[in-house]
Task: structure prediction
Amino acid sequence: MALLERLKGDVTFLKGALRALKMTTPIAKNPTRVFPGVVEDLAEKFGDAPALLSDHERLSYRELNARANRYARWALESHVNKGDTVCLLMPNRPEYMAIWLGVTRVGGVVSMLNTHLIGPSLAHCINIVTPKHIIVAAELLDNFATARSHLQMSAKIWVHGRSSEFPSIDREIESIPAETLAHAARRPLTIEDRALYIYTSGTTGLPKAANINHYRLMLASHGFAGAMDTQPTDRMYDCLPMFHTVGGVVATGALLVRGGSVVIRDRFSAREFWDDIVRWDCTLFQYIGELCRYLVNSPTHPKETQHKIRLCCGNGLRPDIWTDFKNRFRIPQILEFYAATEGNVSMFNFEGKPGAVGRIPWFVSHRFPTEVVKFDIDKEQPIRNAEGFCIKCAPNEVGEVIGKILNDPSKPANRFEGYASAEETSRKILHHVFEKGDAWFRTGDLMKKDENGYFYFIDRIGDTFRWKGENVATSEVAEAISVFPGIEEVNVYGVHVPGYDGRAGMAAVRADSEIDLDAFRAHIGKMLPEYARPIFLRVRSEIEVTATFKHKKIDLVKQGFNPSVTKDRIFYNDPSKKAFVALDQALHDRIMRGEVRL
Result:
């Protein structure tokens, strides 16, 4: 990079960083100012201006605050004490935010359940946070029913909507006053208090409940408001799941704290995307890389360049589609970022460097100590030198990204808040990294950093892989498959498919008899969310293991789903036929050429 270009990039980065720092620096200095309280102030300031919008419901700032007050009083009347958990299973809608704002306003903790989960996986997410109440949207009662027999705790169940079995919480709150809570009814809250549980699958095992305190809510909302330079005239299009940090906190909070508005759609639709963007006069939208890929691969839309979008913000926009996406849809600015829901590593690509997740220039590196360390893929651990310390990667060398944990009250962003499980928390901390006694957070992500300091995402570490924007834990998938009659052993992994981000799920199985493929497909349909169901099935006579009885995956991943490299039978989970079909070379080649949509 030429000196002039480097200086220009530094200036661009500095402008964005200063906006974010201006918004976030006051947070630690005002520890009793929490996000639910900010919303009260916003209601006074912006009143009847639109806050959260959808085709079915619209809330002004005043109405959002009033609805949150009703849920706050419901929580008090329902004996939700400070630190008690309320689980929320609900699709995207303005009411979603009103619920968690209200419950957290009086010290409750809201567990934001993944609406795609069913059965044991959903039950696990509920069990690990031991809720006092569970709120379920009426349209998700069937999903919830699959988990009830696996629940290990007793919680009062409420339905949002209509049900003959459970009390209706929306009817309940209509009779509750919406006025501001009296001082005597409030519980003292600080940014240190827990507000939410947001689930992340991490690198191994079932989903983990990440502790999100009020500081992280303030940091996400105010930091991204500064990074995107949101204004009252901005309108964000949010079609990402609100049970995730990006869709539920960043895309909403970053607009609200500056007086803007958010259009909430229940789910992404490539066909209706540009119609929505134009119809709602959106100036921003929040993306994940797979969303952008769907749009690029879609037919030309008459409104795809008639929008008012000034910036799109997100993560996972891969280098192979970055330029096409920007040019085809005439996107003035792409703000790619990297952050872990529960971690202390974050970075922004303010300069719009195609393919990079961001960088941490020298002039802010002391505030955000982040390193890429050499990594042993087989052992799934960082490599250490003769003195027992980790080794920093050279430029463009792939390794694991780690962030230094600092317990400095003035730098709460460098802490690691951990999970509901202490055991899961300890697994993510790396000790004695560069000196005795230091501690670093393990992101579980492999990246490389080039000679100019830009970071590039490579892959997830370990047994977890990403597919269609979701992390898939192979142990969870293997557990679901292993209980199917006749399955004696199973090895689950992800395989690369051209044209797709992440990896497609594949399972190698050993069975004691012929597998009933129709029954098997029905089984995984009941046990696993759609994104976690294997797309390819390989039937083997033997599953290789290491000396320590761990399944060998490396060779299987390399072979992928190519029938020419094995005598094993391979099947494809064909969505059009709703069946597993034998995968021959012709079908394999069609998938590789992108002629078959997975």
Observations:
- The chain has a mean pLDDT of 92.
